[in-house]
């Protein structure tokens, strides 16, 4: 794309400079050599089981280049809420976050789960920094408006502080991000971890060659939910819409894949859905 800059000399003359940035060698070199970054999103079940978590942290530590880890923690939040006598309410797999539940998820996501992962990475000589969206304003969101369902204190991401995150990453600090955001008015908000991962990957793609890997308990997106080996190796947007119509893809996999396609369309180089224990295998479902 060409950009024109004009200025007047006297009353009548005008000089036009045309800059086609693709003709500038240093620009081409920068665009072709974005440093590699891998962003892993790990679900609560994996993050909360000691053996699974240890294996994941071993594999994550072995990833070359820059990296970021985003985690969930819903199972622990449900367990601790129960111990505190707080009822956990879910609609279509999504948590209703009332005022008391918000306190629980803030403690669990931003405290217990986040710091357990951060400590585990430090033990593996990874200079990790545990963060929520409120820390250094890295992820700001707006409270989800009430439509058919009032989800309570749930936030939809509106801004990622890309300059701060990129600065941390370039200093070889590994962000470990909890799925908690804030609205800039002093309120914490519970935010879907898949969305946090997708929005963060999209923002970072301005500076890095980003691979986004969603880790969960299956080998990938399954054609047959009763057959763990029926992995669909790749899915296009057209495939996605057809599989929804056919009932192959349903429930929580729909928003996960929607986040994946949004990331690809926003400039993320690669999105993979796979087992947490298979992040180095090259398998899983690739979003294309």
Automatic annotation (TrEMBL):
Residues 36-274 form the Aspartate/glutamate/uridylate kinase domain. Its EC number is 2.7.2.8. It is an enzyme of class 2 (transferase). One of its GO terms (cellular component) is cytoplasm. Pathway: Amino-acid biosynthesis. It comes from termite gut metagenome. InterPro entries: AceGlu_kinase-like_sf (IPR036393), AcgluKinase_fam (IPR004662), ArgB (IPR037528), Asp/Glu/Uridylate_kinase (IPR001048). This is Acetylglutamate kinase. NCBIfam families: argB. One of its GO terms (biological process) is L-arginine biosynthetic process. The lineage of its organism: unclassified sequences, metagenomes, organismal metagenomes. Gene3D superfamilies: Acetylglutamate kinase-like. One of its GO terms (molecular function) is ATP binding. Keywords: Amino-acid biosynthesis, Arginine biosynthesis, ATP-binding, Kinase, Nucleotide-binding, Transferase.
């Amino acid at each position: 794309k060409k950009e024109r800059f004009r200025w007047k000399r006297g009353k009548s003359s005008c000089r036009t400079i045309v800059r086609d940035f693709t003709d500038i060698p240093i620009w081409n070199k920068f665009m072709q050599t974005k440093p590699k970054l891998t962003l892993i999103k790990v679900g609560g079940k994996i993050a909360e089981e000691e053996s699974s978590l240890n294996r994941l942290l071993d594999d994550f530590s072995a990833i070359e280049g820059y990296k970021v880890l985003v985690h969930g923690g819903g199972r622990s939040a449900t367990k601790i809420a129960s111990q505190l006598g707080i009822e956990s309410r879910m609609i279509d797999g999504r948590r209703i976050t009332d005022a008391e539940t918000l306190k629980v998820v803030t403690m669990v996501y931003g405290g217990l789960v986040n710091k357990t992962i951060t400590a585990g990475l430090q033990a593996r000589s990874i200079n990790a920094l545990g963060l929520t969206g409120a820390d250094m304003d890295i992820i700001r969101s707006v409270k989800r408006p009430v439509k058919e369902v009032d989800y309570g204190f749930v936030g939809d991401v509106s801004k990622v502080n890309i300059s701060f995150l990129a600065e941390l990453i370039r200093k070889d600090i590994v962000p470990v991000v909890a799925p908690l955001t804030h609205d800039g008015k002093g309120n914490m908000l519970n935010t879907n971890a898949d969305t946090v991962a997708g929005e963060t990957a999209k923002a970072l793609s301005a500076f890095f060659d980003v691979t986004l890997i969603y880790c969960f308990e299956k080998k990938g997106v399954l054609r047959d939910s009763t057959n763990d080996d029926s992995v669909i190796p790749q899915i296009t947007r057209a495939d996605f819409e057809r599989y929804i119509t056919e009932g192959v893809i349903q429930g929580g996999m729909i928003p996960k894949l929607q986040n994946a396609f949004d990331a690809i369309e926003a400039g993320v180089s690669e999105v993979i859905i796979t087992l947490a224990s298979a992040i180095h295998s090259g398998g899983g479902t690739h979003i294309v």
